[in-house]
Amino acid sequence: MKRMLEPAKTVLLNLLVLASFVLTAMLWSNQPNLQFIEPAEYTQSKPVQEKQLVELVTPESVVFHYGENRHTKASATDAPYSLIVREMSKWIFLDFSPLTISNEKWEDIAREKMGLEVRFRSTVPLSIVGRLVTFRDEFDNRIKGIDRLWLYYEKDEDVVYALFLSTEEGRMMRSRTSISPKDLRESYLASGDLMPEQIMKIVKPERSFVDLEGPALLWSTYYLPKNQLRMQQFRYSYVPITNERLIESYFIDQSLVRQIMERDKTVIFTDGSRSIQLRSEQQAFTFTDPAYQQRDQELSDEEKVQSAVTFMNKHLGWLDEYHFERIKKSYNEKDLITFRQYLGAYPLISDGEAKQIDTIQITSEAGQVVTMSRSQLDLDKYIDNKDWMIMSGPELYQYIRDKKLADTEKITNAYLAYHTKVGDGYVDLMPIWVVELANQANLYISAHTKQGGGKAHGLE
Q: Does residue 12 form part of some domain?
């Protein structure tokens, strides 16, 4: 019995090995027909109006300094502004160095020296500025961005210097430029000679920012027209963005999208991951994508803004005229990127409680868009306009004093804009003065000059 058991084991083992070979051969020759799943991509809405980053980052205005405290200003619709913006691509900057100057030197540069001031809407990352001009040398990371580029002529050295100014950081860098004194005088300053005369208002810092070389005084400036201006009040029709177009623009598989109605009448479209929230009372919507992919390296501010621009180009596009306004950190360290709508040279400002048609606001994390909010209204056809006479700077100040709206010594900036008022099928764009105050809410004042001044708006 024992002698028969051993041959039986050998036979069974050989059968198992043979079966294993047979099964392996069957699996090898009968592979399943696997289908590779491509990474999901958003559906691109068509047609869309795409923009390049350099088209969205443009100066807010150009101020011309002639010495003897004479200044003029050009905005986006003025020929001298267009000349300067075209010439900027030819400017070369080199030999950068940090700079601290006294109040006396500021007085000399601001009021007495010939120069040119390119002003941005807020702080623009230096790497983006480097797309508008040419840096021959690199910064040493003393400042991350600038809100003003100030060219001035130093007569004793016969050189045009440039100041790169960051009001937010309270720092500045100086460089030499490729701009010849002749071009500054006979081309740039000559082009702005007939633009409206301005009153320079200086805002000195409440405290000195400490630099490696000692306290740094950085003057902030803004400009008010000496005389009354003409400005148009406009009325436009608008076209609402349809739900179908929103779904087509923001969802991968439209068949998965379902609609949810909240108790407060808010409508939500979702595919189980991404969602669009429609606020009917404001005719605006918010897109949310909670998916987050960790990045191995930290992105620069330029890369973050470029990512937001790319997202907008692929999803609905830029329906109206927008410009980059700012990038800043939120309370939870995400990036808040704002693009503001413009009509010509003037920004649109919406009432805090009314329909918002003035900004596109994006929250991103490591360059990926997490939320995006914008209006559902697209300005369409021009309907009507009225010619307005606009309060001059002195009239604006006098009106603020007469109405006891604020202490004019606390004003840090003032500029013209359009207040949006949405009606039944139309949007009125009303000229207003936006007055920024230190540690206070902004004032929004009707810019019309009749009856001694404007009427304050109840904007938040």
A: no
